[in-house]
Write a structure and sequence with these properties.
This protein has 350 residues and is α/β, with parallel strands linked by helices. The chain has helices at residues 45-52, 55-60, 103-106, 147-150, 153-163, 180-191, 204-213, 227-233, 250-259, 280-285, 300-310, 328-337, and strands at 6-11, 20-25, 33-42, 70-78, 90-93, 96-97, 117-118, 130-134, 138-140, 172-176, 196-201, 218-221, 240-245, 260-268, 289-292, 319-324, 342-346. The strands form four sheets. Strands 3, 4, 5, 8, 9, 16 and 17 form a seven-stranded mixed beta sheet that branches. A six-stranded parallel beta sheet has the order 12-11-10-13-14-15, with helices on both faces. The chain has a two-stranded antiparallel sheet with strand order 1-2. The longest helix has 12 residues, at 180-191. The structure holds nicotinamide-adenine-dinucleotide and zinc ion.
């Protein structure tokens, strides 16, 4: 197959709100890299930060970068040293490109490498017809995994890694934040043997939508319902055994600390927008364990994700909207309303 020399892609072309569709050269690949022809991409909360050009984006993302990091497609070309994948393979990929110098990377804890760079954040991204990716990062997909599921495996990995960071069998689990990751985590917790799963948010649309993906979950809008009353209603007389903080919101974490059992475990994925006060006396007095979660485990989380999908974890209800890539502006406008699950762009429709 002859490759084109140029491609369309979504670029953070100006230091202001928005993304711009531009024509750029198709990336060249190194001997250890793979060129992926992108078929589907999904829009992430991180992309919204970049789109809106908030303080985090200004500090982290270079103007002129091709954005996007949730994708699936087919291998279009391979470098001379690539052995594990071949042209035509259906793939997605890990969006964190790691170094090989740090203690953690040398020890095989690649996801804890401080030299990590993010595709679509620091490196050219996947909102494009073609993406160059190290072979190391490529995840082959079975025929049975749809492209659009491949395109949401990046956030699914955050949900799986966080949910599986503590034993959930027979446990009562509180998840704060019904964003896409919190909703997926609720479905994973149920599948992983949790007894009761409670998901909180302040947005009714999201909690209603969450019922389609994780129907066994008790949804709580904390603006309308008292979490303690809900705990009594569902037969809990102590506290939550495991907490998954997936909002980054101050009231959510403090409510979690209040409602945990003595000796409970909390995994924290949500990124606080700014520092906030927490009553550490509760962490000490309740003998809680708090664990920060970054990204996903390379590549154990990918193994677990594919195994969960193989064993029937159905994430297709997470996808609420599909747009042609040429209509990206509509997709970003929709994402801004907060009334969507995962939103997919089709890169064959340009
Ligand atoms: P999201 O912003 O779509 O969802 C967060 C949800 O929290 C929203 O629905 C919001 O209404 C809700 N919320 C706000 N205040 C709340 C409260 N007091 N109680 C309960 N819910 C409340 O985010 P997402 O894409 O699902 O990601 C979840 C979080 O994880 C975000 O903070 C994101 O930045 C973070 N994240 C972290 C990593 C990591 O590696 N640590 C990776 C990806 C995402
Ligand atoms: Zn993402």
């Amino acid at each position: 197959m002859t490759l084109p020399t140029t491609m369309k892609c979504l670029v953070k072309a100006n230091a202001e709100k928005g993304l711009w569709m531009e024509e750029r050269p198709v990336p060249t690949i190194e001997p250890d890299e793979v060129l992926v022809k992108i078929e589907r991409t999904a829009i992430c909360g991180t992309d919204m930060h970049i789109y809106k050009w908030d303080d985090w984006a200004k500090a982290n993302v270079p103007v002129g970068l091709v954005t996007g990091h949730e994708y699936a497609g087919y291998v279009a070309a391979i470098g001379s040293g690539v052995r594990r994948v071949k042209v035509g393979d259906k793939v997605t990929g890990e969006g964190h490109v790691v170094g090989n110098r740090s203690r953690n990377a040398r020890a095989g804890r690649f996801h804890l490498d401080p030299d990590t760079k993010g595709i679509g954040v620091n490196l050219p991204g996947a909102f494009a017809q073609y993406l160059a990716l190290p072979e190391f990062n490529v995840i082959p997909l079975k025929d049975s995994v749809p492209l659009e599921i491949g395109a949401i495996m990046d956030p699914l990995g955050n949900a799986v890694h966080t949910a599986l960071s503590f034993d959930l069998v027979g446990e009562d689990v509180l998840i704060t934040g019904a964003g896409p990751i919190g909703i997926m985590a609720a479905a994973i917790a149920a599948k992983s043997g949790a007894r009761r799963v409670v998901l909180t948010d302040i947005n009714d649309w999201r909690l209603d939508f969450a019922k389609k993906v994780a129907p066994e979950t008790r949804m709580v809008n904390i603006l309308n319902e008292n979490l303690r009353d809900v705990m009594t209603e569902i037969g809990m007389n102590e506290g939550f055994d495991v907490g998954l903080e997936m909002s980054g919101a101050e009231p959510a974490l403090n409510q979690m600390l209040d409602t945990m059992i003595m000796g409970g475990n909390i995994a924290m994925l949500g990124i606080p927008a700014k520092p906030f006060p927490v009553d550490l006396g509760k962490v000490v007095g309740k003998a809680l364990t708090l664990r920060g979660i970054y990204g996903r485990q390379m590549y154990e989380t990918w193994y677990k994700m594919l195994a969960l999908i193989d064993s029937g974890l159905d994430m297709s209800p997470m996808i609420t909207h599909r747009f042609a890539a040429r209509d990206f502006q509509e997709a970003f406008d929709l994402m801004e309303t907060g009334k969507s699950g995962k939103v997919i762009l089709n890169w064959n429709e340009l």
